[in-house]
Design brief:
- Keywords: ATP-binding, Lipoprotein, Nucleotide-binding, Transport.
- One of its GO terms (biological process) is protein localization to outer membrane.
- A 6-stranded mixed beta sheet has the order 6-7-8-3-9-10, sandwiched between helices.
- With 225 residues, the chain is of the alpha/beta class.
- The chain contains 7 helices and 10 strands.
- The longest helix is centred in the C-terminal third of the chain and has 18 residues.
- 42% of the residues are buried.
- The protein has one domain: Rossmann fold.
- The protein binds adenosine-5'-triphosphate.
- Adenosine-5'-triphosphate binds next to strand 2 and helix 1.
């Protein structure tokens, strides 16, 4: 089997250690996601989904266990190396779009590319292609406030993929949308992910959406099964 894009091994995480409020969220969580594989992460509220995604996305560190991105061991890596790996390899999507309100949809997708050193004309062409591929090409020049919730979220997907990451991490990406919109927007996300051959870990409470992914992982009692 090819090298997993994301591999977690026996990851443990405790918040507020040695305080009365101590909570052990992860108790040996392990997973491996292959290139091109789309995996659903399903868990009861408060089970530690966001914690797991933050650790996988190198935004937080585990107390124990190992995190590898593209075969590179990230446990104990310097902040600089983790930041570089995060920028180069990982795209994030959240429940709320977090687009920059004073910039257009197009600019929101161009800016991270400019920050990564891509030339403006190339960045703009890529941003337009991405917007067209998720069905919001006609909205390129609108600011986020002039877009519907579903359109905003589709723009957020494009932004997450702008710099060609190899791993997409999504935390309830359609959780804020009504069921019909959620279905359409999820379809757009899957289209993008399949087109680019990304590996993805997508947290959702929606079991119908989870069933459309390649595999479902359940997070319970701090472990994945
Ligand atoms: N920074 C923190 N300090 C202390 N406790 C925390 C912290 N972050 C999360 N927790 C606790 O850890 C547990 C898991 O939180 P997490 O946000 O990962 O859950 P979740 O599965 O994403 O929940 P939800 O589906 O409701 O968003 C919860 O009990 C939460 O209260």
């Amino acid at each position: 089997m090819s090298e997993p894009v994301l591999a977690l091994e026996r990851v443990e995480k405790v918040y507020n250690r040695d305080l009365p409020s101590e909570v052990q969220v992860l108790r040996g969580a392990s997973l491996a996601i292959a290139p091109g594989e789309v995996v659903a992460l399903v868990a009861p509220s408060g089970a530690g989904k966001s914690t797991l995604l933050h650790i996988a996305g190198l935004l937080d560190t585990a107390d124990r266990g190992s995190v590898r991105i593209g075969g590179q061991e990230m446990t104990g890596a310097s902040d600089r190396r983790r930041t570089m790996a995060r920028r180069a390899d990982i795209g994030f999507v959240y429940q709320f779009h977090h687009l920059l309100p004073e910039f257009s949809a197009l600019e929101n997708i161009v800016l991270p590319q400019l920050a990564a050193g891509v030339r403006a004309r190339v960045a703009e062409a890529r941003a337009r292609d991405l917007l067209v591929s998720v069905g919001v090409g006609a909205r390129a020049d609108h600011r986020p406030s002039a877009l519907s919730g579903g359109e905003q979220q589709r723009v957020a997907f494009c932004r997450a993929l702008a710099n060609g990451p190899r791993l997409l991490l999504a935390d309830e990406p359609t959780g804020n949308l009504d069921p019909a919109t959620s279905d359409t927007v999820f379809g757009a996300l899957m289209g993008l992910v399949r087109e680019t051959g990304l590996a993805a870990l997508i947290a959702t409470h929606n079991l119908e959406l989870a069933a459309r992914m390649d595999r479902i992982l359940h997070l319970e009692d701090g472990r994945l099964a």
